[in-house]
Write a structure and sequence with these properties.
Blueprint: E1 2-6, H1 10-22, E2 27-31, H2 44-48, H3 63-70, E3 73-75, E4 78-84, E5 89-94, E6 99-104, E7 107-110, E8 114-116, E9 129-131, H4 135-147, E10 152-156, H5 160-171, E11 175-180, H6 191-203, E12 207-210, E13 214-220, E14 223-229, E15 234-236, E16 239-242, E17 246-248, E18 266-267, E19 279-281, E20 286-289, E21 296-297, H7 302-315, E22 330-334, E23 337-343, H8 346-351, E24 356-364, E25 374-382, E26 388-395, H9 399-411, H10 416-420, H11 436-448, E27 453-454, H12 456-465, E28 470-473, H13 477-482, E29 489-490, E30 509-512, H14 517-528, E31 534-537, H15 540-554
Parallel strand pairs: 1-2, 1-7, 2-3, 7-19, 9-16, 10-11, 10-16, 11-12, 18-20, 27-31, 28-29, 28-30, 30-31
Antiparallel strand pairs: 4-5, 5-6, 8-17, 13-14, 14-15, 20-21, 22-23, 23-26, 24-25, 25-26
Cofactor: FAD
Protein name: Coenzyme A disulfide reductase
InterPro entries: FAD-bd_OxRdtase, FAD/NAD-bd_sf, FAD/NAD-binding_dom, FAD/NAD-linked_Rdtase_dimer_sf, Pyr_nucl-diS_OxRdtase_dimer, Rhodanese-like_dom, Rhodanese-like_dom_sf
Amino acid sequence: MRIVVIGSVAAGTSVAAKARRNNEDHEIVVYEKGTDISYSVCGMPFYLGGEVEALDDLIPRDAAWFKTRFNVDIITATEVVSIDEVHQTLLVKHLPTNEVVEDHYDKLVLATGAAPRVIAPFDQGHDNVFTLHHMNDTRAIDDYLKTKPVSNVLIFGTGYVGLEMAEQFHRRGLSVTLVQRSRQIMTNYDGEIAYRAEQVILENGVNVIKGVTTESLEVEEQRITAVKLSDGTQLPADLVLLATGVIPQTQLVDHMGIAKGTSGAIQVTDRMLTSVPNIYAVGDVAESFSLIDGSPLYRPMGSTANKMGRIAGDAMTGGALAHRGILGTGIVRLFDTTVAQTGFTEKVARAKGYEIDVLYNIKPGHADYLNGTENVIKAIADHQTGRLLGAQIIGQDGVDKRIDVFVTAISFGAKVADLFHLDLAYQPLYATTKDPVLYTGMALENARNGRPLLSPTELYQQLTAGDSLQVIDVRSQKQYEQQHIETAISMPLGEIRKRLAELDPTMPTVVYCNKGVTGNAAQNLLLNMGFETVYNLSGGHKNYQLVKTYLQQNG
């Protein structure tokens, strides 16, 4: 059997390696249009910022290594220009000579990836406009920074690449402005979590402009010198980076009528087969699906590409591997802060029709007496079943390990009650006795069983609408006087039993403290004293004030 793979980054090389591990007899050929193979796309920003010393560190293997290790022929600088799916043949062009030859396949794998989206008016070949998708992009940006005067950098787009490059350009001492078309950065997150991330970016000296498009450019000798935005802002520009997303590269198979998803990526089975016989698709050109509900999900990531490649290589050589879906997990460092997300956001869960419980959990990542710092965890649970649906975290302390616990829990269908029983590693340098993960499970399970939570957004909307609510601030009188929620009365926890007569047990009641723990104690007390409906404000007063500011600024 002759296996031909088109593309040799994470997905394509994984196909070839797994297919060879399973079978020593098959012919395996990989065609690569570029000259680099199996390189770390995700590591490129860190080279440009100086955290990775040598570019070659991001290219650990070459074609000769693959030939020796796997007996796989990786042919670089060679482009597949057409596919005949009926006769299972290919036309292949060797780029240095422009020689075109015919090849054939028994099994064909599309690992063609995705191309960076180049938006107007930046699509006119300006010398100082760049994308960051291939190793040659990295070389071009590096060369420009070393040979041209650059002080002001504009980055369009606030996905992971845009954010990473903002940090790395800033690390080089450049003035950086992030420009986002929508009114929210990091659109895969809920708005108020993205707002927290935005504050970190601003505090570190990177400018952020949202809700704008590009109106016009000032250009001198094919080089952009300034950009005028739709709000009238004029920004000087020495270098422009487009980080506005990617487009699956399906051109080779568009003539086949191959099935695609709403993302434009190719639909595949759990064995990576497309709708065309003997053709597989893996990596950024292929659409995945949600592990939670099976709905289509396109989140191009190197980790997913590697996994898809392994599955395809196994499937076509008689193995039993099958794709189980993804959660859309992502993580990014913003200076001294980490932001991570997995599963459904609140916005997505509500759009899908789930009745959900929403928890804001503000806890240190390890013991505060050893300088533990607060993480904000927003977790979503299905109220009916108790299943954990998603989590978002922002903080400086163990964000990565906790998001991975939530990923594992969701992947195996855990309910929030299960989280409390996890025997997580505890030592005060690394965790608290009641780890934030355990507390997340406990609080969400309580919410499902008569101890309801009210999110800051819900409280703000109800207060704005003039709904009849009894809001009780259970912090100290001093804290209340410094700042409190509008309409709230001050009743510290220790005074509640003595002052019950001041309250109406039939009126919907919201209690709050600074972060949520004391509020929960007050909630329990009032419910035990016969109050009909008592909510604990999730995340407390501190969280409410931040979310209120976000809502007032963003409508």
